[in-house]
Amino acid sequence: MYGYIGSMRTRPGKRAEVIALLSGSLEDLPAAGCLSYVVSECADDEDRIWVTEVWESAEHHSASLQLPATRAAITAVMPLLTGEFTRQETRVTGGVGLPVNR
Amino acid sequence: MYGYIGSMRTRPGKRAEVIALLSGSLEDLPAAGCLSYVVSECADDEDRIWVTEVWESAEHHSASLQLPATRAAITAVMPLLTGEFTRQETRVTGGVGLPVNR
């Protein structure tokens, strides 16, 4: 399984709007191989959002970026961000709340 | 919901052993309020492990550290780590693969 841990900074006061846009675009992800997609407010930075994701493979993740709802969300969100991102890729070995043996 | 995104560095060559110890200690977590607990190998650091967690509340997370299996895993794992940790707390707003409206 492929894992992605990322953060983004929003322009001041725009975090709730960005979270709403991201959260409204997730309906098609499970069918595209998404096993987990967690959206969070950073506890100690009022303009930062964290997203942690688990996918069946890196290829599933890459392909998902072309889904219409995902493309629309990216287009809507980008002007609300500062351009400061962090990203960490992982190989997920297992845990709680995931399908096992995939 | 409370979120935790952490990483730890293992002593050289000890990552698989640490992952096995962590992964073997998770059985009691769902009943303790754990909604997601994802264990991963860092893709670009062969001695780093990432753990991302979602709990019903910060209090559930804190209380879980006293579970017998969790205490035993921490005791077993600590000598295999370098002491280099990262930690990020979040407020989880939702996503895919989580119970909603909690």
| Largest sheet, strands/sense/barrel of chain A | 4 strands, antiparallel
Are there runs of chain A of 5+ residues with pLDDT below 50, and where? none
- End-to-end C-alpha gap of chain A: 7 Å
CATH class category label of chain A: Alpha Beta
Overall shape of chain A: globular
CATH topology of chain A: Alpha-Beta Plaits
Helical fraction of chain A: 25-40%
Order of helices and strands of chain A: EHEEHHE
Instruction: Please tell me the overall pLDDT of chain A.
Output: 95
How many β strands of chain A by DSSP?
4
**What's the number of domains of chain A?**
1
Keywords (chains A, B): Monooxygenase, Oxidoreductase
Pfam family, one (chains A, B): ABM
GO molecular function (chains A, B): monooxygenase activity
InterPro entries (chains A, B): ABM_dom (IPR007138), Dimeric_a/b-barrel (IPR011008)
Descriptors:
homodimer, 102 residues, alpha+beta, Alpha-Beta Plaits, 4-stranded antiparallel β-sheet, 3 helices, 25% helix
Can I get a quick summary?
Two copies of one chain form a homodimer. Chain A has helices spanning 15-23, 58-64, 68-77, and strands at 2-10, 34-42, 48-55, 81-96.
Characterization of this structure:
- Two copies of one chain form a homodimer.
- Chain A is α+β, with helices and mostly antiparallel strands.
- Chain A has a single domain, classed as Alpha-Beta Plaits, CATH 3.30.70.100.
- The first copy, chain A, has three helices and four strands.
- A four-stranded antiparallel β-sheet of chain A has the order 2-3-1-4.
- In chain A, strand 2 (34-42) and strand 3 (48-55) form a beta hairpin.
- Chain A is globular and about 40 Å long.
- The N and C termini of chain A lie close together (7 Å).
- Chains A, B: Pfam families: ABM.
- Chains A, B: One of its GO terms (molecular function) is monooxygenase activity.
- Chains A, B: It comes from Pseudonocardia zijingensis.
- Chains A, B: Residues 2-92 form the ABM domain.
- Chains A, B: InterPro entries: ABM_dom (IPR007138), Dimeric_a/b-barrel (IPR011008).
